[in-house]
């Protein structure tokens, strides 16, 4: 029952962020425990999405674990982007104030992206556009950053979100010499 309450508060919090409601923060726990909770929810969703996405394919347990870890690369990108923009903009807003809602924004992104990849692969970019909008609002409302800092946050977050998993796949599967 607590899981549904957390998800309900995350949805209400994101609704408040999107419309610019100053009381958005009451829906998120911007502390280490809140971050761990958000990570666990994202991990469970990533596991479920990976299992659904690989139905019919034979995957070893190791490949499944690695696929879920690759799904979680978005968190690393979000954290790095948040810290970089905070440092550059000299923001006094605590990093977890941006990171915790950001992790909750990755949950629907993972679900929508996987559904689009399964059914209409060319439209996967729409999931990135939706996430970009949410991250921009997150930077403006939660981070209290300027429009340019929020835009830089979006660009850096999306770039890391796309490149980190690709880099891991490339490192895991080095090219084979044709000779």
Task: List the keywords.
single chain, 179 residues, mainly alpha, globular
Distance between the termini: 58 Å
Helix content range of the residues, please? Answer: over 70%
Mean pLDDT: 84
Strand proportion: under 5%
Structural class: mainly alpha
Order of helix and strand elements from N to C terminus: HHHHHHH
> What's the tally of helices?
7
Number of strands: 0
| Regions with little confidence, pLDDT below 50 for 5+ residues | none
**What does the main sheet amount to?**
none
Determine Rg (CA atoms, Å). Answer: 17 Å
Provide a concise account of the structure shown.
This protein has 179 residues and is mostly helical. It is built from seven helices and no strands.
Give an overview of the whole structure.
By secondary structure, this protein is mainly alpha-helical. Helix content is 77%, strand content 0%. Helix 5 packs antiparallel against helix 6 and helix 6 (124-142) crosses helix 7. The longest helix is centred in the last third of the chain and has 26 residues, at 147-172.
């Amino acid at each position: 029952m607590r899981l549904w309450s957390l998800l309900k508060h995350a949805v209400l919090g994101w609704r408040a962020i999107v419309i610019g409601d100053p009381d958005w923060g009451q829906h998120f726990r911007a502390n280490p425990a809140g971050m761990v909770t958000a990570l666990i929810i994202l991990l469970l969703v990533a596991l479920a999405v990976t299992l659904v996405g690989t139905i019919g394919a034979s995957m070893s347990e190791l490949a499944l674990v690695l696929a879920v870890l690759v799904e979680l690369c978005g968190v690393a990108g979000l954290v790095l982007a948040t810290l970089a923009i905070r440092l550059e903009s000299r923001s006094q807003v605590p990093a977890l104030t941006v990171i915790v809602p950001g992790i909750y924004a990755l949950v629907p992104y993972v679900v929508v992206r996987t559904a689009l990849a399964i059914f209409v692969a060319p439209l996967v970019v729409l999931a990135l556009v939706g996430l970009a909008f949410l991250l921009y609002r997150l930077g403006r409302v939660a981070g209290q950053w300027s429009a340019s800092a929020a835009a830089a946050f979006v660009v850096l977050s999306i770039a890391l979100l796309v490149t980190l998993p690709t880099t891991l796949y490339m490192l895991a599967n080095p090219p084979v010499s044709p000779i």
